[in-house]
Amino acid sequence: MGEERARATPAMTEARRRTHAARLLLRARASSGPVRERYENEVVRLHLDVALDLARRYHGRGLAADDLDQVACLGLVKAVRAFDATLGHDFLSFAVPTVRGELRRHFRDAGWVVRPPRSVQEAQAEVVVAEAELVQVLGRQPASDEIATHLGIAESLVRECQDAAGCFHPVSLDAPHPVQDTSPTSALGADDPAYASAEARVALQPLLEALDERERTMLRMRFFEHRTQAEIGAVVGLSQEQVSRSLAGLLARLRRALDAA
């Protein structure tokens, strides 16, 4: 007997709320100004738990829970203001789809980190649901053409939705690999330092080709092999002082040639 009473109480409470909401909405419909606003606010307070419960179903999907709660409450306010109580329909049957629509619109507009085309955004949720349903029916992962047939949409759109699966909450490039102890950024290339001197090498090439063998040897040993002037002199048969004067004159000649070019 106690269990039957416990089960009946929520149903009775819901019935009373439905009746009370209908009465408030009718009074709001027949009123205007602050009086109407007071009735509408009372209907909103009466159904806040419903809106917040709908918002909780979307928690943990990449958007702030507080933002989702606020969107759900705003959706409830829209439903209250748009509902026509004179038609005799149940308010919740109108409010729940309205709040859910506001939540989905918020995800569509604010939830994509990498934003695919609008057609993909709108169809992706349907593709995900259809894929789960077909897994149960077929006992295997459905192909893209099977999902397209099930939804009555183009197969190319289904493929785009599947490719965009990571756009809503992509994995960070700095996140560690699940198997290897590295992140994707560790495998990315860096700027080649040779790019900075590429233009200079192109400009110098014809000038260097015009030098004699000893001059090219001196430049190679000094600036590429980082040899001392004494070591260079021992190879080319000059004293250290002669190597110093020769290199200075050679560099000055190259600068003048570059300026002229």
UniProtKB/TrEMBL annotation:
It holds the Pfam family Sigma70_r2. One of its GO terms (biological process) is DNA-templated transcription initiation. One of its GO terms (molecular function) is sigma factor activity. The keyword DNA-binding applies. Keywords: DNA-binding, Sigma factor, Transcription, Transcription regulation. Transmembrane segments: none annotated. Residues 44-112, 127-191, 207-255 form the RNA polymerase sigma-70 region domain. This is Unannotated protein. The lineage of its organism: unclassified sequences, metagenomes, ecological metagenomes.
